[in-house]
Amino acid sequence: MEKTISEIQKEVDDWAQQFEKPYFSPLSMLATMTEELGEVSRVVNCMYGDKNKKNGESLKALEEELGDLLFALICMANDQEISLDSAFTKKMEKVYQRDNNRFVRK
Ligand SMILES: [Mg+2]
């Protein structure tokens, strides 16, 4: 069964709330998100870019790194009491309106 964005945010929060300090400070969460984005970049660069893996280096799958980044993003949203459902809806309104004629259609 697929989960909604709200359900995913709640699942992360239910897990986090078992800890004395459920979420890192905002700056630490930003650093974590940046780290995870860097890991996504490394995988994509090794897949499509000019940079090869180091000898003996094992890279996680892109899916796993995107999952890490998503988790970090959800932690930031939860700590800041931001609904990602609402954020997504607002983003899509921009895509449908502001960017409606921005890209070449098929
Ligand atoms: Mg990672």
Question: What are the salient characteristics of this protein?
Answer:
flat; mainly alpha; 0% strand; 106 residues; Helix Hairpins; binds magnesium ion
Description:
The chain has 106 residues and is mostly helical. The protein has one domain (5-96): MazG-like (Helix Hairpins, Orthogonal Bundle). It has four helices and no strands. The two termini are 33 Å apart. 6% of the residues are buried. The mean pLDDT is 95. The structure holds magnesium ion. Magnesium ion binds next to helix 2 and helix 3.
Note the topology.
Layout (H helix, E strand, L loop, with lengths): L4 H12 L9 H23 L13 H18 L4 H13 L10
Bound molecules: magnesium ion.
Name every ligand kind in the structure: magnesium ion
Gyration radius, in Å: 17 Å
Alpha-carbon distance between the two ends: 33 Å
Helix and strand sequence: HHHH
Arithmetic mean pLDDT: 95
Q: Ranges with pLDDT <50 over ≥5 residues?
A: none
* Helicity, as a percent range: 55-70%
Total number of domains: 1
Structural class: mainly alpha
CATH class reads Mainly Alpha
CATH architect. name: Orthogonal Bundle
Q: Do you know the CATH topology?
A: Helix Hairpins
The biggest sheet, with number of strands, parallel, antiparallel or mixed sense and barrel status, is:
none
**Silhouette:** flat
Determine the CATH superfamily.
MazG-like
Produce a short descriptive summary.
This protein is mainly α.
